[in-house]
Amino acid sequence: MSEENRTGPSRRQFLTSAAALGAGSVAAGMARAQTPDPLITEIQPWAQQFGDGVDATPYGLPIRFEDDVIRRNVPWLTADVTSSINFTPIHALDGTITPQGCAFERHHSGAIELAKPDYRLMVNGLVDRELIFTYEDLERFPRENHVYFCECAANTGMEWAGAQLNGAQFTHGMIHNMEYSGVPLRTILQEAGLSAAGDLKDKWIYVEGADASSNGRSIPMEKALDDVLVAFKANGEALRKEHGYPVRLVVPGWEGNMWVKWLRRIEVSDGPVESREETSKYTDTLADGTARKWTWVMDAKSVVTSPSPQSPITHGPGALVITGLAWSGHGRIARVDVSKDGGMTWETARLAGEPGNRALTRFYLDTEWNGEEMFLQSRAMDETGYVQPTKTQLREVRGLNSVYHNNCIQTWWVKPSGEAENVEVS
Amino acid sequence: MSEENRTGPSRRQFLTSAAALGAGSVAAGMARAQTPDPLITEIQPWAQQFGDGVDATPYGLPIRFEDDVIRRNVPWLTADVTSSINFTPIHALDGTITPQGCAFERHHSGAIELAKPDYRLMVNGLVDRELIFTYEDLERFPRENHVYFCECAANTGMEWAGAQLNGAQFTHGMIHNMEYSGVPLRTILQEAGLSAAGDLKDKWIYVEGADASSNGRSIPMEKALDDVLVAFKANGEALRKEHGYPVRLVVPGWEGNMWVKWLRRIEVSDGPVESREETSKYTDTLADGTARKWTWVMDAKSVVTSPSPQSPITHGPGALVITGLAWSGHGRIARVDVSKDGGMTWETARLAGEPGNRALTRFYLDTEWNGEEMFLQSRAMDETGYVQPTKTQLREVRGLNSVYHNNCIQTWWVKPSGEAENVEVS
Question: Which chain B residues are Cβ-neighbours of A16 within 8 angstroms?
Answer without folding.
Answer: none
